[in-house]
Design a protein that fits this description.
The protein has about 325 residues and is mainly α. It has 2 domains: about 20-110, no CATH class; about 140-325, hpI Integrase, Chain A. It is about 50% helix and about 0% strand. It is built from 15 helices and 2 strands. It has a two-stranded antiparallel ribbon. It is elongated and about 75 Å long.
């Protein structure tokens, strides 16, 4: 076997394969998780293809076969490949967090296959770079940023993240069935995650969006043929990040570091900071509407079983004025 610790050329050749079992696995996890895993595993499949190692399925099978050998006969198949893959990710410009996510996705799939795969001793990169996130002052500033979004899908998505406090992954997990009952009929619009839970933590919660977002959603969906299981936004996290980065350059010019200060996640932060500054609801209610579970997941989920969506709708309604641009509230002001 060749020295697999050498860096791999980023010129991939051939047609990478995930394998039937990998494809099946991707249908069994949450849509947001599936998108993340597919991106990571597809990149790993290209890496394996370039080295003549076969599919992701065959990699996992070889790791399992090696693990079953007596200690004296083990060839340490996985570690050299994973170290080389880590080097490949770094060479391709992946951030430390993305590198760890890609490797963790491989480990997550291995766990599904009940195959032991450790990431220890790979020299995982530390995410010690402080991320600069733009602090949105108010809804007017957010509107000035979003006016640069000429595609209706991204205009609707940007407003949705800011007014609801949802992450980009949770927004992209929404289907037409999630909004069909109330869209264009009830305001604010209920976004119910009591069954599916937040994509990142599984915490169950509800939140809402107001007329500013509803109008953008109706404009974006106008003329589309939609079914209950149709995704509201047929795009990926990577595409959203790229679009936001391009618009951010128009909005604020170049910035220090690789991280976009006006990233999609900054609008989720914007929801929290703007509502906090307005002092219209309690900090506990802000945390609950964002699906935060770090300060007592069980307690928050219990809150949602004792307080119904209509009561939370009234809570969110107190936030709507500070989450809506002033030009929509006063005929004197304009964007």
């Amino acid at each position: 076997m060749e020295n697999q610790t050498e860096p791999l050329s980023l010129e991939f050749k051939g047609v990478p394969e995930l394998g039937e079992k990998t494809e099946l696995f991707l249908t069994l996890v949450k849509p947001s998780t599936s998108r993340t895993y597919r991106t990571a595993l597809s990149f790993f499949a290209k890496f394996l293809c370039a080295r003549g190692e076969g599919s992701v399925d065959s990699f996992i099978q070889k790791v399992d076969d090696d693990d079953r050998r007596p200690l004296a006969e083990k060839v340490d198949y996985a570690a050299p490949l994973l170290r080389s893959f880590k080097t490949c990710l770094v060479m391709s410009g992946k951030a430390p967090k993305s590198t760890r996510t890609y490797l963790a996705s491989i480990q997550g799939y291995a766990k599904y296959r009940k195959v032991s795969l450790t990431l220890d001793y790979l020299g995982m990169p530390n995410d010690d770079v402080q991320v600069l996130t733009h602090e949105w002052a108010d809804a007017d500033e957010v509107a000035r940023f979003l006016v640069l979004f000429k595609l209706p899908a991204y205009q609707a998505l940007g407003r949705l993240m800011f007014q609801s406090g949802l992450s980009v992954s949770d927004c992209l997990s929404l289907t037409y069935a999630d909004v069909e009952k109330e869209l264009g009929k009830v305001s604010p619009l209920l976004l119910d995650f009591r069954l599916a839970g937040r994509s990142k933590t599984g915490v169950r919660f509800v939140t809402f969006c107001g007329k500013w977002t509803i109008d953008a959603l109706l404009e974006y969906l106008k003329g589309k043929t939609l079914y209950p299981d149709s995704r509201l936004f047929d795009t990926s996290v990577e595409s959203v990040d790229s679009y936001f980065k391009t618009r951010a350059i128009e909005f604020m010019g170049k910035w220090q570091g690789k991280t976009n200060p006006c990233s999609p996640h900054s609008l989720r932060h914007g929801f929290r900071s703007v509502v906090h500054m307005a002092r219209v609801i309690t900090e506990t209610d802000i945390e609950a509407l964002m699906g935060h579970g770090s300060k007592g997941k069980a307690k928050m989920e219990n809150t949602y079983t004792t307080i119904g969506p209509e009561e939370w709708r009234r809570v969110w309604k107190r936030c709507e004025p500070c989450l809506t641009p002033s030009y929509l509230q006063s005929p004197i002001k304009s964007l």
